[in-house]
UniProtKB/TrEMBL annotation:
Protein name, entry field: Type I-C CRISPR-associated protein Cas7/Csd2
InterPro entries named among the record's database cross-references: Cas7_Csh2/Csh2, CRISPR-assoc_prot_Cas7/Csd2
Originating species: Methylobacterium ajmalii
Length: 311
């Protein structure tokens, strides 16, 4: 079994700001791949799953051969095959029919620890590994909420043409030209919240072993993941700001929502800055770049034992 690193011992929260220009940050398959929207507010949404996918992809690129940095949820993976690897390492004598049920408590913990030690994303986000070949369940110390645009967005449907026909019949009937549709958000600044639980990282029984090095890699991924996720559909996406709240203790020194309230986003136009939705902004043009916003962090009267890190 791979060696285990000491788990993170201090609680963290973070606020991630990223933006999109002329792209679709997260299509909704239930709505013809339109950008996800909150129908009551028209604010754009990006799912936690989409963000985790980008983080996983970055880690796979940044640590391709590093021990303990395999990716469990990856393109083309067969999950039961990975579970069998754990069974082979922990209990090589087990028969296929034995692998459908978890063994006694000590051996079951060995299975999940093996998976945590080898797969970075299990150690980070957790996993349900009970799909036929049973390797248990892991609750991950890192969780992300849906990202939401700081203002309403107005998706556009753009008509596009293709000169190459798919079939000979199309070539004859349409002269080779076919029409298509592309959905974009002209501009949107999105905000997401994240949470890092020290007990779920370092608990002697339930902890995944998510370490300080893993945490540093997570923050690195949050800063650079869009640089390695380019596609025509997503336009230009970039991480604009990461605000980290680091607590002095495992259980934390202040409620997460109180800390998140210290991070504010203002609209900026011709040297003026106002709260989003303020009457003074009613006749301002729509935001079309990050320069149209200002992100501030209130550091006055921070709860004792809480440190703020801005990137």
């Amino acid at each position: 079994m791979p060696s285990e690193a000491a788990g993170v011992t201090r609680r963290h929260e973070f606020v991630l700001f990223f933006d999109v220009q002329n792209g679709n940050p997260n299509g909704d398959p239930d709505a013809g791949n339109l950008p996800r929207l909150d129908p009551e507010t028209n604010q754009g949404l990006v799912s936690d799953v989409a963000l985790k996918r980008k983080i996983r992809n970055y880690v796979a690129l940044a640590r391709p051969e590093a021990p303990g940095h395999e990716i469990y949820m990856r393109d083309g993976a067969t999950l039961n095959a990975e579970h069998r690897r754990a069974w082979t390492a922990v209990m090589p004598e087990a028969k296929p029919e034995d692998q459908k049920k978890l063994p006694k408590e000590a051996k079951a913990r060995e299975l999940t620890r093996w998976m945590c030690a080898n797969f970075w994303d299990i150690r980070t986000f957790g996993a349900v590994m009970t799909t036929g070949v049973n390797a248990g369940q892991v609750r991950g110390p890192v969780q992300l909420a849906f990202a939401r645009s700081v203002e309403p967005v107005l998706p556009l449907e753009i008509a596009i043409t293709r000169l190459a026909a798919t079939t000979e019949a199309d070539a004859e009937a349409k002269g080779g030209r076919t029409m298509g549709r592309k959905h974009i958000v002209p501009y949107g600044l999105y905000r997401a919240h994240g949470f890092v639980s020290a007990p779920l990282a370092s608990h002697p029984v339930k902890g995944t072993g998510f370490s300080d090095d893993d945490l540093a890699l997570l923050f690195e991924a949050l800063g650079q993941m869009f640089d390695h996720d380019r596609s025509a559909a997503r336009g230009e996406m970039a991480t604009r700001k990461l605000v980290i709240f680091r607590h002095a203790t495992a259980l934390g020194n202040a409620p997460a929502h109180v800390l998140f309230d210290r991070v504010r986003t203002l609209r900026v136009h011709k040297g003026e800055a106002h709260e989003i939705g303020a009457d003074a902004t009613d006749h301002w043009p729509p935001a079309r770049s990050f320069a149209d916003y200002r992100v501030t962090v209130d550091r006055d009267g921070l709860p004792e034992g809480v440190e703020v890190i801005e990137r």
